[in-house]
Amino acid sequence: MATWAYPPLPPDQLNREADSALARELEWLLQSLQESLVSLKEGLQDCASLLAPQDPGSTLVLSSLRSENVKGFVTRVGTKVVKGDIQLRLPSLPVPRGQSSARLTLSQTPDAPGLVLQQLVSVRNLVNQSLDIVDVSTYTGNPLDATFIFSQLHLLHETISEARQMLKGEGDVRGNWWETSASDNVFDPSPPPYVSFHLSIADSALVLLLRTLESNAYAQTPTAFATDISLTGFSLRDRIFGSRQRAHDEAGEVFMWQGEEVRVKEKIRVESQDPSLMAVMAKLTALEHEVMRWVGALRVLMGNEDTESET
Fold first, then answer.
1. Where on the tree of life does the source sit, at the highest rank (predicted)?
2. C-alpha span between 184 and 206 (Å, rounded)
3. Would 257 be classed as within a structural domain?
């Protein structure tokens, strides 16, 4: 569809009128963004409130499906897990005499170290940084300076996106289990030896990965009854029945855990959706898309359509 001005305007005047209309539209958009930043700040404050420590916290069930391997719960308050009681019945984990299962209980003593979820600490910090960016965009600088507002919105989008990705657990943000497993001091009584307890966040859910370990030196020590030793590299069992299927995806790998080389005997994963974290994820996703839309609109009105978007 084409629009014609009558009587026809000289090309120079037509270009000036077009630039003037574009400038007025850009000014209108910048003024509208100041109002939109108010609602954006409210959404970020809601996220901060959901991540803040509030009693009684969120009690989440952490139990394995269709088995009795793992049964228990943990209570999250803010960025910390303050309570937890988990019963373990794993084939590779000896059960204490007189008990039906091994038990992991978080210590309730005042001097016990807290079990901090570093991903949630990062999300909380990023949300607070986003609030600071909104305040700078609102109260500092010229709100009608398109370049200033564009740079602030671009930074805001990156910060919100990083918070969302941290909550989603993408990449290596969840930490390596052999470096970030819970310390034995977190539990009372101490957990069985060679047990790794690793909590993280993935897709707004609290994920527990339990591993029973064995020393790599012990695993490589041959015994008189070893069935895996063969001059050809294949055991008699493998030649008769075929190679055994890997018990889990880390079987055979060696890790440095607590200053010792270990192998993973058994690996169990359980998870529990956290309603509060799901709400934070939904809000961050909506806010990220909204800021991305603002950045795109500013880019067009500033004549930067060809600028590569970081979104």
1. Eukaryota
2. 20
3. no
